[in-house]
Amino acid sequence: MEWIKLIGILIILVGFILKFDTIAVVIIAALATALVSGISITEFFTLLGEAFVKNRLVTIFLLTLPMIGISERFGLRQQAVILIEKMKGLTTGRFISLYVLIRQIAGVFGIRISAHPQFVRPIVNPMSQGAAKSRYGEISAEDEDKIKALSAANENFANFFAQNTFVAASGVLLISGTLKSLGYEVAESAISQTAFIMAIITLVITTIYNLTFDYRMDRKYGIKNNQKVVAS
């Protein structure tokens, strides 16, 4: 009956599928696994407490939450929007590359921009579309979809590869706690530094790709009120 000890995995799967509270699902799954494994409730809470103490660096993240909240409450996100809206005359690729840079800088300071729902769809994509139409006039529906995809993809790249540049990010603390539990001493700052290198590489690669997109659009449409770009 060793397979019964896997009940915790089943509970987590069901809980996530039904979108129950994440922390509650994990705790219940852990408790169920402990009980079927012969661990008493007292021993379970002892283990839980010891694990929390060993990973107490998580409290660093909790301490930074008020700072982040106050910054956003007093207009940090709104100022980012205003800054982007003032950027006139940018091509689609340059504008999206600039957004990647802003997104990564926000990640360094642990500022959440809310990504696709509250930033990319209502702000980044429309402005990218506007930059294209200002430069080329009307563009095809296919190219409009490509710009939508480009905006969404760059958001994913910037977020994924820069989220651990913040030293108190949950990913950094998870990596640090896991490595330390396995006997490897590692500083959170070292993890962030490594993530910072990856963020720079990502910025370079996405910028090259975005500028290549501009080049393809120039060749296809030419610049508004000018002759079509001719292949050399």
TrEMBL record:
UniProt KW keywords: Membrane, Transmembrane, Transmembrane helix
InterPro entries for the chain: DUF969
Transmembrane segments: 7-37, 57-76, 190-211
Keyword Membrane: yes
Name of this chain's protein: DUF969 domain-containing protein
Organism encoding this protein: Enterococcus eurekensis
